[in-house]
Amino acid sequence: MARLERNVLLIVNAFKMNMFLNRIFVQLKKNYCLTAAQTKLREMLSKVVGKGDVSENSKIITIQCLEDYYFFSLFCALATTLKTQGNVSFEQYVVRSLNVGSSQSIANWLKSYLLSNRLTDKKWISLYSLFCNKIAFRATSPLGYISDIKLLFISVKIWRNLSSKSDVLKLSWQDVLLGDLIYDSYLRFKPAPTVHIRNFYMLTVIWQALRTFKSAKRYFSKTKPSAYFTSYTTYIQHGIPVRVALYLGIPVYSFSNFQTVAKRLKLDDTKQTASCNTYFSDFQSLDDKDSKLLAAEKQLQFRIDGGIDTATAYMAKSAYHANVHTIPNVTNAAVIFLHDFYDSPHIYSWSLFPDFYDWICFTIETLTKSKIPFFIKPHPNQIDLSSEVISQLQAQYPGLRWLPITATNKRLVDAGITCAITVYGTVAHEMAFLGIPVITCGDNPHISFDFCKNATTHEEYQAYLVSADKLQFDAHQMRAQSLMFYYMHNMHRDPSESLVMNVTQKLFKLSQTVESGEEDTSHLFDTIVGLMEMSEFKTLCSERFGRHLV
């Protein structure tokens, strides 16, 4: 019997090992080779796009080779259209840099290296090569770490001189600010909810930042492209080339906010987010304000009723999605609306706290000490790791009252909450629309309106929190201003650009389905071609980027 049990155990273990090796093989094949969906998409696109003729007089536009179907599709449409409008070639920047979780163990490092390296880059490089003529540069130099030993010693010196989180945020290199990019990259890729400056991973991020800086500066200084197209501006792999290019006087455009197709960046505005500081005064100068407010009300009410509008297209699920979940008694209580702890806290120009973990701890301690009743609501689209941070908070602060993640904000308002607390979330104008005052503590899209109590110092933030149950606002004015904001942020654009953005939104959603495993890429292909054929898109490309083709 014992021998039979041993044989059965050996068979079971062999089966498990076979399943494990099979999963590894499937993952390696997916990372190193074009999938069936990618092969089909490449085959279809090769018939309608091309590299074009290149001469010594060709203008150069540099774009990111981002491993993302949406940006690949958008950049494909842009490059193909611009080639019909001028003598231009495109060169791709390979962004592979840090790998999430690689610092947690030797096994994780080995796994991340096997699944993301110079060989795996080739798959997406081959896709972008449909419309790109050559590789511009890489976030990591061709010779790898050996060529960067000097930068390693410099990084060690910088790292050892750090004494606080604020020191990290102040870091600059050759007159270019890198601190916020380094800080956010640590949070995202370690990953961790807050920074520990003595952790060796901080040294890793600083070193990689300097390596990316070196590669970007060498390329932009020598090649001097007519423009640089980027997806995001957060994290070191995106933000450093942006800032280096701007520092060297090269025009840079970001394509990652939902307010415009492309945002022209500046030395004093390097963020991908829309510039919102003049929304209130800009609205006052518009004609026919009442009809604009009515249109905004219709769209915002759609979101409140559980729909996902253009402004929240990035969310997998609406914060107002209908549910039957029972919620506790929140009457006369404030609600803290959590952010995803691993999102970039420095996506706007300034923030009172260095990260969302420091913010939530300060907020909890202040409200508790002041005996202000409050609940905490997790972010509806947080990643799984944020749930672990919530468990840490529950252990650190026993007795906290948590709301179910499925509790809709509308139900919370109807149940009698008195105040909403966020750093910069979209919940601010939603709450204002529903008549609930809001406390914020950093630059945010609502900065030009009065419906938020926006703190600029810790003392001011603390004062707002201790009076959270006594904040006085005019509900009618809050609602009106929330609609002004909504119109300016989501609807105030040229009609032709709105038509283009309708298609790019469709492109975004189709890209998500392909990313999630959908093998039929025909709809994505049709949308890319449809975008290229739009007269409005052709005009936008000419007007927005034509100056860089001559």
Overview of the molecule:
There is one protein chain. With 550 residues, this protein is an alpha/beta fold. It has 2 domains: 57-260 and 499-549, Rossmann fold (3-Layer(aba) Sandwich), CATH 3.40.50; 279-490, Rossmann fold. It has helices at residues 2-32, 36-45, 69-83, 106-115, 118-128, 149-160, 165-169, 179-189, 200-223, 235-247, 279-284, 289-304, 356-369, 384-396, 409-414, 427-433, 458-466, 475-490, 495-515, 522-533, 535-545; strands at 59-65, 88-94, 134-138, 172-173, 176-177, 227-230, 252-254, 263-264, 334-337, 374-377, 419-421, 438-440, 452-454. Strands 3-2-1-6-7-8 form a 6-stranded mixed β-sheet. A 5-stranded parallel β-sheet has the order 10-9-11-12-13, sandwiched between helices. β11 (419-421), α16 (427-433) and β12 (438-440) form a beta-alpha-beta unit. The longest helix is centred in the N-terminal third of the chain and has 31 residues, at 2-32. The protein starts with a helix and ends in a 5-residue tail after the last helix.
